[in-house]
Design brief:
CATH superfamily of the largest domain: Resolvase, N-terminal catalytic domain
CATH topology of the largest domain: Rossmann fold
Helix content: 55-70%
Radius of gyration: 24 Å
Number of domains: 3
InterPro entries: Recombinase_CS, Resolv_N, Resolvase-like_N_sf, SSR_resolvase
Distance between the termini: 52 Å
Protein name: DNA invertase Pin-like site-specific DNA recombinase
Number of helices: 12
Structural class: mainly alpha
Number of strands: 3
Keywords: DNA integration, DNA recombination, DNA-binding
CATH class of the largest domain: Alpha Beta
CATH architecture of the largest domain: 3-Layer(aba) Sandwich
Oligomer: single chain
Pfam family, one: Resolvase
Largest sheet: 3 strands, mixed
């Protein structure tokens, strides 16, 4: 719902009638992508589940945001359905409608770009400066509005790819420092600086989407303890990795073995994993 004054009963009745087992409510602007309840819902949803809304505008106010949500669901093996719109990703007809929406979104972006360029050219021809006059004049209300927009935009960026990096951070913090975690993520294709990563986690904690303990100071560790938790973090972030895969990743990270060698063997990794397993850091054995 957009405001606290709006009632949710009608939507809930319609959703229950459609067979929904769990109904999630969220109050806030649908135009904003900073949607904590929606984020938690997508995080908890499982393969085979269906996210159902009464109307598309109850989920998103832009086609691009809608497509992003549906893409996140598809990656988890879940589907999406709108009761009053021809969108049901579990059916061929629904997928066709989704493809049409994608084409509309692309056209919309192109038209907005063209209108923006035309407006700038017209303003310059009249001798006007492009941009917001309030920002140029440093008006407090304009600056406050810009700050709010920037915060909302930052929150949307942080939430756009959470599944790619947050599980690893949760497993490794606060046992490891931000540099170690950034290096592990880089090997998985998520190239963030330690400071950018820490800032994103701070935002999640502030929005109550992450455990505040993730921001605790990392305890000093003995070299072998640090390697053990690093290997445990790598294996837990990607359980499909073999011992040799982890060894190769440690070499790419320029980590040295407990004996100081630059070359890692599967047995060296196994020794650290066995120790981590005894401490409860790793649940399942890896295939050599």
């Amino acid at each position: 719902m957009s405001t606290d004054e709006q009632a949710t009963e009608a939507q809930e009745i319609e959703l229950r009638s459609a067979g929904c087992d769990v109904v999630v409510q969220e109050h806030g602007s649908g135009a904003s992508r900073a949607r904590p309840a929606l984020l938690r819902l997508i995080s908890d949803i499982g393969a085979g589940d269906v996210l159902v809304v009464v109307r598309l505008d109850r989920l998103a106010r832009s086609v691009s945001h809608l497509l992003q949500v549906i893409e996140d669901l598809a990656e988890k093996g879940a589907h999406f359905r709108s009761l009053r719109d021809p969108i049901d990703t579990s059916t061929p007809q629904g997928m066709f409608s989704l493809q049409v929406l994608g084409a509309v979104a692309q056209l919309e972006r192109a038209l907005i770009s063209e209108r923006t360029k035309a407006g700038i050219r017209a303003a310059k021809a009249k001798g006007k400066l492009p941009g917001n006059p309030g920002l140029r004049e440093r008006r407090p209300e304009a600056l406050a509005k810009m700050t709010a927009v920037q915060r909302a935009s930052y929150g949307a960026r942080v939430q756009s790819n959470l599944n790619e990096w947050l599980p690893t951070v949760r497993r490794m913090r606060p046992d490891h420092n931000w540099d170690d975690i950034a290096r592990v993520l880089k090997q998985r294709g998520v190239d963030w600086t330690p400071e950018r990563l820490r800032r994103a986690v701070k935002w999640l904690v502030r929005e109550r989407l992450a455990d505040p303990k993730m921001l605790d100071r990392a305890s000093p560790q003995l070299p072998e303890d640090r390697l053990m938790t690093l290997v445990a973090g790598i294996s837990q972030s990607n359980p499909d990795l073999s011992l040799r895969d982890i060894a190769a990743q440690l070499e790419r990270l320029h980590e040295r073995t407990p004996r100081g060698s630059a070359k890692w063997s599967a047995s060296s990794v196994k020794n650290l994993l066995d120790r981590a397993r005894r401490l409860g850091l790793v649940a399942e054995a890896l295939i050599p």
